[in-house]
Amino acid sequence: MIPVEEARTRILDALRPTGAESVALPEAWNRVLATPVHARLTQPPADVSAMDGYAVRAADASQGARLRVTGSAPAGHPFSGRVGPGEAVRIFTGAVVPAGADGILLQEDAMPEGGSVLVEEAVASGRWIRRAGLDFTAGDLLLPAGRQLTARDIGLAAAANHPWLSVHRQPRIGILATGDEIVLPGEPLPPGGIVSSNAHALAALVRAAGGVPLVLPIARDDVNAIAAAASEARFCDLMLTTGGASVGEHDLIQQALGPQGFALDFWKIAMRPGKPLIWGRLGQTPLLGLPGNPVSALVCGVLFLWPALAVLRGRPAAAPPLRPAILGTPLPQNDRREDYLRATVTRREDGVLQVTPASRQDSSMLRTLAGCDALIRRAPDAPGLDAGAWTEALILSELGI
Ligand SMILES: Nc1nc2c(c(=O)[nH]1)N[C@H]1C(S)=C(S)[C@@H](COP(=O)(O)OP(=O)(O)OC[C@H]3O[C@@H](n4cnc5c(N)ncnc54)[C@H](O)[C@@H]3O)O[C@H]1N2
Ligand code: MOO
To answer: Coiled-coil region(s) at which residues (predicted)?
Structure first.
C-alpha cells in the first residue's frame, strides 16, 4: 500500500495537458488558455472624455468664464478641429478629446447660453480625461497561458479584439462500470441486483472539473466483456473503471486488461475509503481503476480524478484544498490508513468552520455522502482528538462536487 500523497504524485506526473483548439469567446468561459492573450490594440485608443460636458482649455475655464462652443464630439464621431483660446467643444462620455483641449467641464457645472457656455466650476488640467492606453497598450500581455477564463477575462479578451481564443481541449474521460449485479437506473432489477450509481456520479464530477464524460455501457464480470469495453479507452484522455478493483475472484479489472497491454503502475493505497485503487496505462491511455463501493469511488474521484482533470486541462498539479476546521465530536486514534471521514459543515458565528463526522462511515452509504459537505482528513496514525480540536477538511461544495 502506498501513501495517498505518493499515489497522487505518481498519477499527476504521468499526465500531460490536452492539445489546443480555438473556440469563440462565449464558449471560452471556464476553459484554460493554451496560448497567452496579448492586446491587439491600445485601450482607450486616444485620450477620451470620462463624462458628458465640454472639452476646454483648463487655463481658460476659470469660474465665471464664458466660452464659445465651436462644435460637438459625440462618441464615435471625433471633432476634426481644434479647441482654440476662449473656445469649448460639446463632448460626450467615451468621445475622443479634441486637439487643444486638456480638461472636461462637466455638464452639471456649465450653463449653456446661446452659442456659448458659462463655466460655473473651474476645470483643472487633465480632469475627466482618460489617457490613451490607460487600460492597456497594444502588445501588452493580458492573460497568460494556463489561466482558467472568468467572465472578466473574456470581457478583457474581447476588448483587446480577440474573437477566438486558443484553449486546451476539454479532456474526454471514459467511464466504465463493471459488475454482474449492476443495472442502469430505471432498468428492471434482477435478483440480487443493484442500480449503478458510480458512473453517473463520476460523470457529474468530471463535468464539475471541466472534462467531458463518456459513459460506456456496463461491462459484465467477464474478462472478454471488460476487455472489449475498455478498448474504447483509445478515444479518451483518461479511462476510469469502477468495481472489480479488489481481491475477489470476480474482481477482474487487472485480469481482463493485462492481456490488452495494461501496464500497472500501482495497486492499493493506504487510504480509507479507496484502498484498492489501480493506476496504470492501457496502451497510450492512462487508466484509473476505482473501487466499486460508491463512496470509495467518489472519494477517490475527489482526491485523484479532480486534480488529474486539472492537469489534463492545462492547470497546475495540486491536491484539492484542505481547510482548517474544528471538530464537532471527538475522534478515536486513526490506524495506518489515511482516512477521509464524511462530515457535515457549519460555520460558527466567529466564522470558524465546524465539521462533524457522520456516525456511520460505511463506504456503501450514498445518502450519508450526499448529506455531507466535507471530508475530514486524518493522517495515518493520527492521535485521538477531543471535540473542539483543530483538524482539516476538504469542502466538497468548494469544488462544485
Ligand atoms: N477480502 C477482501 N475483500 C475486500 C477488500 C479486501 O482488501 N479484501 N477490499 C474491500 C474494499 S476496501 C473495497 S473498496 C471493495 C472494492 O471492491 P471492488 O472494487 O472489487 O468492487 P466490487 O466488488 O465490484 O463492488 C463493491 C461494491 O460496490 C458496488 N458497486 C460496484 N459497482 C457499482 C456501481 N457502478 N454503482 C454502484 N455500486 C457499485 C457493488 O455492488 C459492491 O457492493 O472491496 C472490499 N472487499
Ligand atoms: O477502502 Mo474500501 O474503499 O473500504 O470501501
So the answer is: none
C-alpha cell at 309: 482533470
Is residue 43 in contact with ligand 2, taking CB distance under 6 Å?
A: no
Return the exposure string of 377-401: e unless at least 16 CB atoms fall within 10 Å of the residue's CB, then b.
bbebebeebeeeeebbbbbbeeeeb
pLDDT digits (tens, 9 = 90+) for 127-182: 999 999 999 999 999 999 999 999 999 999 999 999 999 999 999 999 999 999 99
Tell the CATH topology of 4-17+170-312: Molybdenum Cofactor Biosythetic Enzyme; Chain A (3.40.980)
Does residue 49's CB lie within 6 angstroms of at least one atom of ligand 2?
A: no
Instruction: Give the nearest ligand 2 atom to 296 CA.
Output: 3
CATH entry, 323-399, from 3.20.20.70, 3.10.180.10, 3.10.129.10, 2.40.340.10: 2.40.340.10
Distances (CA, A) of 214 to 244, 304, 362: 19, 18, 28
- From the CA of 291, give the closest atom in ligand 2: 3
Cβ atoms 138, 39 nearer than 8 A: yes
Mind listing the pLDDT tens digit for each residue in 112-126?
999 999 999 999 999
Distance CA 31, CA 169 (A): 8
- Ligand 1 atom nearest to 218, measured from its CA: 35
The model's pTM is 0.92
For a substitution probing ligand 1, which of 187, 240, 293 has the most ligand atoms within 8 Å of its CB? Answer: 293
CATH number of 20-43+135-168: 3.90.105.10
Where are the CATH 3.90.105.10 domain residues in the chain?
20-43+135-168
Return the closest-CA partner of residue 145 out of 168, 169, 177, 170.
168
Q: Which of 363, 366, 375, 378 to mutate to test the pocket of ligand 2 (most atoms within 8 A of CB)?
A: 363
